[in-house]
């Protein structure tokens, strides 16, 4: 490792070896771990919604690993209070090296590896105790009930579960279908059987098991088909935004996550983080199961993203009575983007909106959203100083 040129390292503000994650450190992830879920929260300047984030997800987790950088707000005070509030679950680690924006020409030459996001993420990753791993973001506030349902389905011994009639029907249909060598005929057979045995209308065309089964059955079927070690559960959330100090759903870009970024899986050495051109990334198991909306995202509020008018906004109180087909034409047109992104947009948000909008109710608002919104409004100048401000004009 080259000598670091940053002032922290030159002034020996810490022992570099305490933070540097080596290949041998990462190999601990291949050791057997007890069944359970480890959350990993990375924090800097997150006073706006940090408390609500933790309170809304902590019951879902067996432990919450929190790594934090020195902050300019009262983030550290909140973290220490929550360490006392949930002492059996929260494990708090102060990551002292400042994180430096990635530059591929300087990476590990001008600065030490400890200043980059991949090392920072791996520093927390190697501390997990349980089989399942999921990133938790401080600007996400979670739907506790949906998380708890997911937890229940993951902890079950799949070999001891009696599968539902719908799962067994679908398994039989697929087993017979795979005997048909021509894909077009195979899908015609599936479509015919599913119309008949799942009471679909005559216009139904087979387009995936997740659109036939309930969420519970879809998760159990996925676990039955694949080893738990080979499944990634992709989670998403609703993008919220402030406009004239009122809360709205951003219907131009309504979904946060849902593709590779927020994934629950059984972590191993092969899932270590590394840097790409801009961000930290990692390889997760290839059998990807998309499960819909699990949180509201306050990141656009934190970063002061604002539209110049309300055309692309749906007021929070109107969400529960809205249907996605009433505004899907306003969603970001990404037909020219890659097919995976289009699939995620079309089949995740549109599929799950009508089901998951029920979580965006007044109880959730009063319990979890009131204080972060008050904070964002009262501390707008401080947030602008930290993150800037962006006015979005969409034509």
UniProtKB/TrEMBL annotation:
Keywords: Plasmid. Pfam families: CgtA (PF06306). This is Glycosyl transferase.
């Amino acid at each position: 490792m080259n000598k670091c040129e940053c002032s922290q390292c030159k002034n020996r503000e810490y022992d570099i070896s305490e933070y540097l994650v080596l290949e041998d450190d990462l190999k601990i992830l291949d050791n057997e771990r007890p069944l359970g879920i480890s959350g990993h929260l990375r924090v800097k300047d997150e006073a706006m919604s940090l408390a609500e984030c933790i309170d809304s997800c902590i019951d879902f987790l067996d432990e919450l690993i929190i790594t934090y950088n020195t902050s300019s707000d009262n983030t550290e005070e909140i973290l220490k209070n929550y360490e006392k509030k949930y002492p059996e679950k929260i494990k708090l680690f102060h990551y002292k090296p400042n994180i430096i924006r990635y530059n591929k020409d300087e990476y590990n030459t001008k600065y030490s590896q400890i200043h980059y996001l991949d090392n920072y993420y791996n520093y927390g990753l190697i501390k997990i105790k349980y089989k399942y791993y999921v990133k938790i973001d401080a600007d996400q506030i979670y739907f506790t009930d949906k998380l708890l349902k997911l937890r229940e389905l993951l902890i079950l011994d799949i070999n001891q579960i009696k599968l539902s009639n719908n799962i067994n029907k679908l398994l039989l249909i697929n087993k017979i279908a795979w005997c048909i060598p021509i894909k077009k005929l195979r899908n015609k057979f599936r479509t015919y059987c599913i119309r008949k045995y799942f009471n679909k209308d005559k216009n139904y065309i087979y387009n995936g098991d997740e659109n036939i089964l309930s969420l519970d059955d879809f998760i159990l079927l996925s676990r039955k088909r694949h080893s738990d070690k080979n499944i990634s559960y992709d989670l998403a959330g609703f993008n919220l935004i402030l406009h004239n100090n009122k809360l709205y759903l951003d219907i131009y870009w309504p979904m946060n996550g849902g593709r590779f970024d927020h994934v629950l899986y059984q972590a191993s050495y092969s899932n270590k983080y590394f840097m790409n051109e801009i961000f930290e990334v990692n390889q997760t198991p290839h059998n990807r199961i998309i499960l819909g909306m699990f949180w509201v995202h306050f990141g656009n509020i934190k970063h002061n993203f604002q539209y110049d008018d309300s055309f692309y906004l749906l007021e929070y109180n109107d969400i529960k009575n809205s249907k996605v087909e009433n505004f899907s034409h306003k969603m970001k047109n990404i037909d020219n983007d890659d097919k995976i992104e289009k699939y995620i947009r079309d089949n995740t948000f549109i599929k799950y909106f009508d089901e998951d909008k029920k979580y965006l109710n007044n109880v959730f608002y009063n319990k979890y959203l009131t204080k972060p919104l008050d904070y964002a409004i009262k501390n707008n100048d401080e947030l602008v100083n930290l993150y800037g401000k962006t006015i979005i004009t969409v034509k």
